[in-house]
Amino acid sequence: AHIVLDNCIRCKYTDCVDVCPVDCFREGPNMLVIDPDECIDCAVCVPECPAEAIVAEEDVPADQENFIPLNAEKAPKWPAITRSKAPLPGADDLNGTPNKLPFLED
Ligand code: SF4
Ligand code: F3S
After folding, report:
1. Where in the numbering of this chain does the 4Fe-4S ferredoxin-type domain appear (predicted)?
2. In the chain, what are the domain boundaries?
3. Which protein residues are within 6 Å of ligand 2, measured from CB?
4. With a threshold of 0.80, does the pTM exceed it?
5. ipTM at complex level
6. Whose CA is nearest to atom 8 of ligand 1?
């Protein structure tokens, strides 16, 4: 599956959801995740993310491997999102800030 990484947190641009052919993005308060049971690894979402926050599972950086189980754990709990919406306030300022995981809302 493809994995949403740390840099989505507090940005949530949502451009990714418009291109997913199987609607497998799930929406938390300040991050999206990908349902690994639904993702078909088409990779079309990767270049759409302004935060470069989506990678194939095999390309997840070593220091963000915890996002693999995080996507899997949140996906069944969060609702589907299939249309893009406005990013979170301050998204452009927070894009690129390292280690936003402590700010993840559930
Ligand atoms: Fe959807 Fe394809 Fe991205 Fe998987 S890789 S989340 S199927 S757009
Ligand atoms: Fe997050 Fe990027 Fe989508 S910031 S909401 S993965 S476009």
Report:
1. 1-29, 30-59
2. 2-83
3. 4, 8, 11-16, 32, 48-49, 51, 53-54
4. yes
5. 0.98
6. 20
